[in-house]
Design goal:
single chain; about 220 residues; alpha/beta; Rossmann fold; Arc Repressor Mutant, subunit A; four-stranded parallel sheet; 11 helices; 4 strands
Length: about 220
């Protein structure tokens, strides 16, 4: 039923083509290898191999699209799966969406990840930040202070780019927003990830949310 719902939503967008579908995580990995899609939408809870393991396998296989870019991964989750979300962040997922969210958010998330951006449902970002605060050794205030200190160490331009990354914009969209070439944005993002000590854009977005760094994606 979940798969049927996802399919029904995505097929309303003429720019999205569904090339394959399955309810089994192991088969999902094989379908990604075979079809080389721009985006794989995985449920955190899947039979056979769960979505987190499937995402990790897709990353280990260095799955690429037909244009040579890495296949983006969007994870579907429900409330109460915060531990799984953190594991998926570490496994290289690019986007996280709540199953009960608005249909428009699913389309926006898939499109953002297809464009090379990270996409965090605001509800997911809030849950992850709250979970990190609740399970860490430091208090929520201390965690926010550390996040703000990390972000403050970035340059003004890097903070601007990080806020736009957290808002779900792709490199191309960020370049147009701040008036630079896309290669410059890529260099900024690489520097941001290195200086923050995070592995991917999604993890950087979580840290930005924790630091209270936000931007309006509409421009």
């Amino acid at each position: 039923m979940v798969r049927a719902g996802v399919r029904a939503v995505l097929t309303t967008d003429p720019g999205i083509e569904i090339v394959a579908e399955t309810g089994d995580g192991r088969e999902a990995v094989e379908l990604v290898r075979r079809h080389r899609p721009d985006v794989a939408v995985l449920d955190i809870r899947m039979p056979g191999v769960d979505g987190i393991a499937a995402a990790a396998e897709i990353r280990r296989a260095a799955a690429t699209t037909r244009s040579g870019e890495a296949t983006g991964i969007v994870m579907l989750t429900t409330f109460g799966e915060d531990d799984y979300i953190l594991r998926a962040l570490g496994g290289g997922a690019n986007g996280f969406l709540i199953k009960s969210g608005e249909p428009e958010e699913l389309i926006a998330g898939v499109r953002a990840v297809a464009d090379g951006a990270a996409y965090l449902s605001p509800k997911v970002a809030a849950r992850v930040v709250a979970h990190l605060a609740a399970t860490g050794v430091s208090s929520p205030a201390d965690r926010r202070a550390v996040a703000r200190e990390q972000v403050a160490a970035l340059t003004v331009r890097e903070r601007e780019v990080l806020a736009l990354v957290a808002a779900g914009l792709s490199n191309g969209q960020i370049a147009r927003r701040i008036g630079v070439v896309e290669g410059t944005v890529k260099a900024h993002v690489s520097s941001i990830l290195a200086r923050l000590g995070v592995a991917n854009r999604a993890a950087a977005a979580v840290l930005a949310h924790e630091a209270g760094l936000t931007a309006d994606a509409r421009g």
